[in-house]
Design goal:
heterodimer, A: mainly alpha, 6 helices, extended, B: 13 helices
């Protein structure tokens, strides 16, 4: 468990250092994600299998545990922005309508493009889920 | 120790508000489970409202609350890095869908920005509010920086980002049902792109593959929106 958490923190730390060092307009954790993927590719080459991300491995257990609680992690920031709802004020109607319209259009356009391109290149959608 | 003295002590300690955050979450999760995971019974929204009401009724300011809640908030960074693990496990499926993902990324990102700017401007919103809305679909830190660059209000953008996240998480399942789309990869990618981490959390709750594609979309949109938003905002003004 500790080893898994240390790997995540190390990648995040390297991500923050990279972002700040190179002045990239990206969040450090996103770069950390990319670094961990690279690390897992190296681990696979070295081990010959994916034991590093097995559900019983230290990294696998910590990652699965954190992602199962992902929604909880947004609660403190969400509580923080409640105090800014006052800023929405007089233009509330325009803002809420814009949010709803834009979110629905974005979801529909993204999913339609994804499926259209996949059909175009003839890939099969073998993953049928809920 | 009188009850009041005890309260003064407890409410000032990180332990109290950290515990409240976890209990509010457990309550919200229980309500969501009792509703049969109904999309409109969103546990993030419920937990936020419960905690915000408690802060208001006890007259606690946010800084004191955050002394405790920061331990939960801190885990957002490692959790983002942890997305690499399901991504790596599903890499064959992800690689096979690179072209659909890139196309959907470009179209989705443009639609997210243009439709937000366009709708708000049509309804007569002020330029600062329009600029604050433009990057609403990306993760908060990135969105606030983009908003500032466009002449928006970063704090307002933070609020709009959270609202967009919750909205997308609530809307995605009914919308995809209405469109008769069941593909978890495509659906996950859409909700991650439109609604960043909160959408990704919803995707993981629905299907592990949806969660993987949502995480990828969130990461890619955080790269693309800062590049596209200034260009599109200039074109539309």
């Amino acid at each position: 468990m500790v080893a898994g958490f240390a790997i995540l923190l190390l990648c995040q730390l390297l991500g923050e250092v990279t972002v700040r060092g190179l002045g990239l307009p990206l969040p450090g954790p996103v770069v950390g994600l990319v670094l961990l993927v690279a690390g897992l590719a190296v681990a696979r080459r070295h081990n010959g299998d994916d034991r590093a991300v097995a559900e019983t491995s230290p990294l696998g257990r910590v990652a699965d545990g954190l992602l199962a609680a992902l929604a909880l992690l947004f609660v403190p920031a969400g509580v923080g922005v409640v105090q800014y709802f006052g800023l929405i004020g007089a233009e509330g109607v325009a803002i809420v309508v814009a949010l709803v319209v834009s979110t629905v259009l974005t979801l529909a356009a993204t999913v339609a493009t994804f499926l259209a391109i996949r059909r175009l290149i003839g890939a099969t959608d073998e993953e049928a889920g809920p | 120790m009188t009850p009041f003295a005890l309260w003064v002590y407890l409410s000032a300690s990180p332990l109290f508000w950290l515990t409240v955050t976890l209990l509010a979450w457990l309550l919200a999760e229980r309500l969501a489970a009792a509703s049969g995971r109904h999309p409109l019974v969103n546990p993030v929204a419920i937990a936020i409202v419960v905690v915000a009401l408690l802060l208001a009724t006890t007259g606690t300011d946010y800084r004191r609350y955050f002394d405790g809640a920061q331990f939960v908030h801190f885990l957002l960074g490692p959790a983002t890095v942890a997305l690499a693990v399901p991504l790596w496990r599903n890499r064959t499926l992800v690689v096979r869908n690179v072209l659909p993902m890139l196309g959907a990324l470009l179209v989705g990102s443009v639609v997210a920005i243009v439709s937000a700017i366009g709708t708000a401007a049509l309804l007569g919103a002020s330029p600062a509010v329009v600029a604050s809305l433009a990057p609403k679909s990306v993760t908060a830190a990135v969105a606030m920086a983009v908003s500032e660059g466009l002449g928006g209000i970063p704090a307002l953008t933070a609020a709009l980002v959270i609202m967009t996240g919750i909205l997308g998480a609530m809307v995605v399942t009914p919308l995809m049902n209405a469109l008769r789309i069941r593909d978890p990869a495509a659906t996950g990618f859409a909700v991650g792109l439109a609604s960043h981490g909160i959408g990704t959390a919803r995707a993981f709750a629905v299907h592990p593959v949806a969660g993987v594609f949502a995480g990828v979309a969130m990461g890619l949109n955080a790269v693309v929106t800062p590049l596209l938003a200034p260009v599109l905002a200039r074109l539309l003004s």
